[in-house]
Fold each of these.
Amino acid sequence: MKKIAVFASGRGSNAQKIITHFNQQAKATAKVVLIVSNKKQAPVLDLGRKYSISTLVLQRKTFYETEQLLQELTLFEIDFIALAGFLWFVPDYLTQAYRQRMVNIHPSLLPKYGGKGMYGSKVHEAVHANSDTETGMTIHYVNEAYDEGQIIFQARCAIEQQDTPTTIAKKVQRLEHEHFPKVIEQLLNS
Ligand code: GRF
């Protein structure tokens, strides 16, 4: 059985979808065994209690100045990492250790609206301000640059004239929830 770690900084609605997709299968071929967050108060950590999954809270100094996290991930025998709204830049030691085994989800059609500072509502506000007629989500491998790793999967949705950043966000989130667990499963089985 493959073991997945989900890294998230916030609410964790994608984390929840991944957990229910894998951990509630009768004959699971993969399971989320660890939730990692950079925020002690992040709601995503509640999922650990709810689904009996171990959690780990990162300290900035340890994360960036040591490679201690790799030992923790080895201890949990983590095969695959899903970044689901994880807002810290991933240091090279982690990218290298999990090359082609760490993916990120981004709420736009990369390479549009990617890069440092482009996250959450900022993305949807920019899409709206530019009067784009479509948007979507991207799942990509994580490499050494923000949002620039090889694209694995994209899903699109149309933007209507009456859409606001809030309604655009909802459309994109629907796509994320629908596709992220399935794409992870395909990658794990390939
Ligand atoms: C998602 O929109 C994802 O694309 C981005 O962060 C958001 C996380 O949302 N990277 P949630 O915490 O999973 O609800």
Amino acid sequence: MKQQILSQLAPDHPWGELLHCFDCVDSTNTLAKSMAAKGAPHGTILIADRQTVGRGRLGRSFQSPSGMGIYLSAILRPQCSPNELMHLTCAVAIAMCDAIEEATGFRPGIKWINDLIWNRRKIAGILTELSLEPSTGKVASAVVGIGINCCQWEVDFPAELRSTAASLTMATGRNIDRSTVAAAMIRALHRMDQELLTHKALLMERYRAGCATIGQEVSIHRADTVSHGRALGIDDNGALLVKFPDGYTEAVNSGEASIRGMYGYV
Ligand code: BTN
């Protein structure tokens, strides 16, 4: 896999020599966090063929079978405070839509905040995790994890995911070369990294344009409550602006809530 990916990156791509490929890990995000703590440089990329404990947002798991998907984590070291990175997951989502479109011709939609979708089903998820410098409170590292279902047909998913999950193969009707998608992901993450702190407004404008949640009736799931409203928009920090039936509008934070469409997953 490593040689196939490198052969599709420019020979002088700055992140090419920071690429690590593994047959099996528990979670590329968990391994990336431990490599970051030991000093792994900005631009380190980890890719696994399989994960035994693939992790998703809000404590969920991410199914990561061998030969079927891309499970990738990148270590970034932006020089900023955490509140300047509230839009990171949105920026990664746009970069991944760009990468998938470049590699396959198909552009996924986005379900707030971190899911890429096709036909109201989830194709990919993003998990971003920050570590802070204890003395300054600044960002020490940001681990950006992306899992993309590439080669599955519907029968390949476990029964409980069959009606809500999809893959790039299902979306395009074609076989997918995972190394081509992985190379496009690395290029897109590198471009995103160059714009992350300087082009926030533009990134958020692109995110809003690609986000299928805006305008939808949604249910908002918090720890122990479910409420219903209409998604009006997304603010510059990635919070979902929801209008409730009593007219009250709230910015719903992605760290505390997930959403579902009123009539299905999206
Ligand atoms: C979600 O669906 O909530 C996010 C899923 C993120 C999965 C990716 S796969 C690579 C990286 N390693 C993990 O354990 N999780 C992310």
